[in-house]
Amino acid sequence: MAFFDDLSRKLTSVSQTAVQKTKDVADIAKINAEISDLQRTANNLYYQIGKLYVEKHAASCESDFFGMIGSVLDAENKISERRQRIQDIKGVIRCEKCGAEIPSGAAFCSSCGASIPQNTVAVDDTDMEKCTNCGAMVRKGMRFCTVCGKPMNQQMPSQSKEQGESQVETAERTCPNCGAKIESNVAFCTECGAKL
């Protein structure tokens, strides 16, 4: 009977040790999770402190920070340029009020309804002419309207068929319809669109 009592005491002791080790492992995991949360909080505060410092002292920082702040500002400029390129590729702009992406040229934001200021580019009118079809202003010398695609000059010079054929055989190839110089390997005139 003493054997069984001794065995029972040993099993109880081993089981209590195992329970204690399990509890210790769980406590360590809990404390490690708390440490990780505190480290994230501290890192976030460091980030906010650094960002605030750059915003307030970028122009008048100590020499120790000059290189790092310059790198931060350079990175932010590059990020801004790349975001603009993405918007250009997508054909969108950002609403100044809510930040939503909206199609370029939209008059109002489709998310918040804010009015979108239209960018107007100053154009020298002396270098422009009005399209007779759609009324758009097109740079002088263009054969076709860049908005509607219609010919800018309705009266295109035409040549006789014999003249056109003789010019095709010369070293400098010209369009038989409008007389424009063209490359020898094209099937259509780049000026008037006539089939060659």
Draw up the topology in text.
Elements lengths: L1 H56 L5 H28 L1 E3 L6 E3 L24 E3 L6 E3 L21 H8 L28
Antiparallel strand pairs: 1-2, 3-4
Measured as a percent range, the helix fraction is: 40-55%
Question: Regarding quaternary structure, how should these chains be classified?
Answer: single chain
Low-confidence runs (pLDDT<50, min 5 residues)? 154-171
Q: What is the mean pLDDT?
A: 80
Helix-strand makeup class: mainly alpha
Give the helix tally: 3
SSE arrangement, N to C: HHEEEEH
Gap from first CA to last CA? 115 Å
Write down how many β-strands occur, each being a DSSP E stretch of 2 or more residues: 4
* Outline: elongated
Radius of gyration over all CA atoms, rounded: 38 Å
Percent strand equals: 5-15%
Sheet of most strands: 2 strands, antiparallel
Order of neighbouring strands in the sheet with most strands: 1-2
Which characteristics define this entry?
196 residues; mainly alpha; two-stranded antiparallel sheet
Molecular structure report:
It is a single chain. The chain is mostly helical and 196 residues long. Among the domains are: 125-152, no CATH class; 156-196, no CATH class. Helix content is 47%, strand content 6%. The chain has helices at residues 2-57, 63-90, 161-168; strands at 92-94, 101-103, 128-130, 137-139. A hairpin with a 6-residue loop joins β3 and β4.
